[in-house]
Amino acid sequence: MLQGHDHTYSKTYPVLQDGSIDYKLEYATIGSVKYTVNPKGVIYAVHGTSGNQSRKPYGVTDENIYEIYGESYNNSWANITVEKNKLTVKIMYLENGQPKLWNSYGIL
To answer: What confidence score (pLDDT) does residue 80 get?
Structure first.
């Protein structure tokens, strides 16, 4: 589940139908990308900010549900590709006018 309007960068562990978190995950690395294999729940992701809107996370957050959670230091975007059963997300940002890879992950 891709979502927005949060000026942070985050990715949850799979959230199961009953609201619990699935921490028993299998991973596979293809190239330099770490893929979650057959997650049983929904993974929620926010890919940072667009425009001049970076800020630190605030409020109370249950960090136990997040595999990744933190401040969005850069204005960023997600390049997402889907090939058969493989979803790949590459988080990009600009440095001196050139696109750079910030982070990546995937789901098989």
So the answer is: 92
Who's near 94: CB < 8 A, 6+ residues apart?
74, 75, 100
Angstrom distance (rounded) from CA 21 to CA 89: 21
Confidence of residue 82 (pLDDT cuts 50, 70, 90): very high
- Torsional class of 47: left (φ above 0), alpha (ψ -120 to 50), beta (otherwise): alpha
Structure letter (DSSP) for residue 50: S
Residues in the chain: 108
| Half-sphere CA count of 81, side-chain side, radius 13 A | 6
Residues 38, 28 contacting (CB under 8 angstroms): no
Point out which residues pair with 20 in neighbouring strands. Answer: none
Q: What is the pTM of this model?
A: 0.80
The model's pLDDT over 42-73, given as tens digits with 9 standing for 90+, comes to: 999 887 666 555 555 555 567 788 887 766 66
Sign (positive or negative) of CA dihedral 87, 46, 44, 2: negative
